[in-house]
Amino acid sequence: SIHDAIRVFYPGQDKPDLTTFPSKINFQLNDTHPVIGIPELMRVLMDEYGYDWNTAWGITTKTFNYTCHTLLPEALEVWPAKLIGELLPRHLEIIQGISEQFRNELRGKGVAEDQVERMRIATDADENGEGAVVRMAYLATYGGSYVNGVAELHSELLKDVTLKDFSSVYPDKFKNVTN
């Protein structure tokens, strides 16, 4: 866990300088199941250690990397925002802040509004008019240093198909790192 990593790398320190955290550890998000770690690190940094949003975000994005295992856009995990809000309300608040920051960043880069909407991390409603959702792969892509597939061809298909909108804006995030 994040608290374990802080305890191991900053033993006996009540208020460690966590700006050095990414130089000590990186968390590999092996698919979307552990992506909730992104808002959790933000929460720990801001709520428990007093870092401001921008500093916490800088630390967070240097700490996580994402391996995407699926090529089918419809197979990418989406979590109901209502469920996240019921179980982890602070995490949902942080995710919504990340999503809004991301949309503003995209607009600042001159990305067309239809592409900005396609890339939303937190939506108002899903395609069926159901409740709001959080697109975990999108959160992982934006919230980490880099994205890779499980093989070279897979990595290329991620860039060219599955996460094409992201690779068009952030081409340097996409790497091919395999065992």
UniProtKB/TrEMBL annotation:
SUPFAM superfamilies: UDP-Glycosyltransferase/glycogen phosphorylase
Keyword Transcription regulation applies: no
Broad EC category: transferase
GO cellular component: cytoplasm
The reaction(s) this protein catalyses: [(1->4)-alpha-D-glucosyl](n) + phosphate = [(1->4)-alpha-D-glucosyl](n-1) + alpha-D-glucose 1-phosphate
One example GO MF annotation: glycogen phosphorylase activity
Residue intervals passing through the bilayer: none
Cofactor(s) needed by this chain: pyridoxal 5'-phosphate
InterPro entries from the UniProt entry: Glyco_trans_35
Keywords: Carbohydrate metabolism, Glycosyltransferase, Pyridoxal phosphate, Transferase
Single GO biological process annotation from the record: glycogen catabolic process
Enzyme Commission (EC) number: 2.4.1.1
Function: Allosteric enzyme that catalyzes the rate-limiting step in glycogen catabolism, the phosphorolytic cleavage of glycogen to produce glucose-1-phosphate, and plays a central role in maintaining cellular and organismal glucose homeostasis.
Assigned protein family: Belongs to the glycogen phosphorylase family.
This protein's name: Alpha-1,4 glucan phosphorylase
